[in-house]
Amino acid sequence: EINSKDDPLVFKGVVFNEMKAAYSSPDRVLDMRTQEALLPDTPYALSSGGDPTHIPDLTYEQFVNFHRDYYHPSQAHVFFYGDDEPNARLKLIDEFIAGFQRRQVDTTVPLQPRWSEPREVTLPYDAGDADADTNKTLMTVSWLLTEVSNEEEMLALGILEHILIGTSASPLRKVLIESGLGEDLTGGGVDPYMREAVFSVGLKGINKASAQKVEDTILQTMSALADDGIDKATIEASLNTIEFQLREKNTGRFPKGLAALISIMPSWLHGGDPVERLAFEEELEKVKQKYEDDPSFFEHLIGKYFLDNPHRSTVVLEPDPEVKVKREAAEAKRLEEARATMDDAALDEIIKTVQELQLRQETPDSPEDLAKIPTLTIDDLEREIKTTPQQDLVAHDAPILYHDLPTSGIAYLDLGFNMRSLPARYLPYIPLFGRALTQIGTQSQNFVQLQQRIGANTGGIGASTMTSKVVTSNAINADDTAAYIFLRGKAMMHQTGELVDILRDILLTINLDNRERFKQMVLESKARAESTLGVAGHITVMNRLKAHFTTADWASEQMGGISNLFFLRELAERVEKDWPSVLADLQEIHSLLINRQSMLANITLESENWTQFQPQLENLMGALPQTDFAAQDWSHDALPAREGFTVPAQVNFVGKAADMYAAGYEKDGSYIAVLKYANLDYMWNKIRVMGGAYGGAMIFDHTSGIISYLSWRDPNLVGTLKNYDGAADYLQKLSLTEVELEKAIIGAIGDVDQYQLPDAKGYGQMQ
User: Fold this and answer.
1) Is 249 left (phi over 0), alpha (psi -120 to 50) or beta?
2) H and E: helices and strands count for the chain
3) How buried is 729 (Cβ within 10 angstroms: 0-12 exposed, 13-18 middle, 19+ buried)?
4) Which of 76, 419, 627, 696 has a CA that sits 20 to 30 A from residue 18's CA?
5) Model pLDDT for residues 659-685, shown as the tens digit of each residue
């Protein structure tokens, strides 16, 4: 792109910048290089999003031809979910494909030819200013497994993955973390989304000299597990966990139909039976029967797919500060060489093309074209407001919120403890303290035994935090803050007694005096926080922006923002040099938090099962200590109004925020529709289409009154801030047709009335 003959040529494009961000993330680069190394003779060796060094090579003709051949109804796999009438489905399909002729295009993905011996590759990557001698190397060891259409084998491998690395107590994960060679796992286990499944595991945060030690540790651990056997308690816990997940079908915010489609696509695309993946019962019983018949079943899988499988690759990424310099120099040279071949006529042609493109980008779609897109109408929307039932109860002077919802016999329990009992200096500890509750052990069980017990007897137990301004009768005070840490567990009704017993043991007998285990959690958390910066930097930006305005948002940023990353880096050193002071902090946090006077219980469960569960819960609550509660002062220094943080990335994450309530705004529901339209029109066009960023949005927090402008994977900085400043003028001059307004309202209702499963409804109602 060029706007005048005096300007330098630049590459510009949304996907171009998206992939620059992807290639700035060490974890993403490692994943791509691992796939490339293990499947070099298949399309999987190429980046699906495109390598930014090669994206400019793509011609328009190639792009159009590829779209014509592969984005065609002949290649479609049509999926319906629901109880609608089959003939209506066929009619709908016909409306879409009637105007097309069938095309014969071979889309078969070949199988990767198998190797006779393992391979290794070492590559440089951009880690900012880190040199090759720092602990910034990351690596994976990976194996090619079986075709994903082999449903029974894939289920068995999924269970084996959970056995090996699924929890902090899993044997392979435990050995790698306790080796001290790195900070956190890489790889992620089984990847079931290609024609042939892959298993990858490794470490990040290692010294390059330790790469061979990591590989040896992985192979030796696999061999020891195959020869000496896997702890049966670990196997039983993993079997229960996977079976619980299959039966619960908890897809979070994903509608179950969409989750089902995603799960069946890998097999279906390559000739597998799509229904077989959904009808898991038969395969699950086969795997369980094989394990019952052969107690060494999973050890034999290790031998078959790992120890006796020569199709293995080891990929090592080493930090190199020259990578960025060389990449930028190569791009600049390419543009300079291209410009050197252009005369004035060629430059004029580029300027003309850019102007035509900009005009097209700025020109709204015609009403005739917009009318071709099928849309809902206001009349299609439900008028009835959906409510979640809640009974407010009390036991042992603590509130219980009970939600009578159909949960298929699963009890969802959230135990909340008021963090306002803590001095502000303890807030950065809270995410680690929450992890420690289930991952550090108790006085009677080490963390491995505790994890086995949780896995074998529940659907899982974990911790989360919630902070918010307190709103009472529309009166809002920036310093009136609600802040809770929740210990959240779930279990089938026949397991609820054990769930309650585990929670009691965790809360009353936790053994925090385990420096090595706590150190491992600190390093894991630090590594994960650093990885997040390059992938979801806009979330970090938003958290930091909001922290300027309210105590609740400041507290949230202390626990999960850039401030927490700085804290984790310092804490890693303190754990090594001054463990007694760290332990004293953790123990005081425990004594201040675990208090019946400052707790609440939130339960989601059918009424017919509540009568059985209620006395179990009340017994647990009665066993907790009770001391006077006093809210602590969370006064803090103001943050700078303008801040910038540098990360090793080729793109930016840009934000700006303001307090709308302080400016006099009085909230009503119209803001949802206004922002919906502005995001799809102004922000989409200014930040993405014309600015080249991968995305941008205005987000309003109706509780705090903070509006945040955000961009992600953005090549710009000052220009983006100017576009934020132009939003007010855009809204003042905005004139909508009835059709446009109706679309905005429908979109707003879609945001408000999101799909929720019973556990999310109960938790959301409590908040």
Assistant:
1) left
2) 29, 14
3) exposed
4) 76
5) 999 999 999 889 999 999 999 999 999
- With beta carbons less than 8 A apart as the criterion, state whether 320 and 132 touch: yes
What pLDDT score was predicted for residue 132?
62
- Which residues contact residue 713 at a Cβ distance below 8 angstroms, ignoring those fewer than 6 apart? 17, 18, 20, 21, 651, 653, 693, 694, 695
CB 584 within 8 A of CB 574: no
Per-residue pLDDT, 476 = 46
Q: What are the tokens at 531? A: 């990885």
Q: Identify whether the C-beta of residue 559 lies closer than 8 Å to the C-beta of residue 419.
A: no
User: Does residue 555 contact residue 483 with C-beta atoms inside 8 Å?
Assistant: yes
> If you count them, how many residues does the chain have?
767
Tell me which H or E stretch contains 138.
Answer: strand 137-147
pTM of the full structure: 0.92
For the residues 721-739, what does the mean pLDDT come to?
94
For residues 148 and 192, the answer to whether their CB atoms sit within 8 Å is yes
Q: Residue type at 293?
A: D
User: In the chain, what are the domains?
Assistant: 14-31+49-111+325-362 (no CATH), 119-319 (3.30.830.10), 391-623 (3.30.830.10), 652-734 (3.30.830.10)
- Look up residue 536 and give its two tokens: 């979801």
CB distance 338 to 9 below 8 Å: yes
Cα Rg of the chain, angstroms:
28
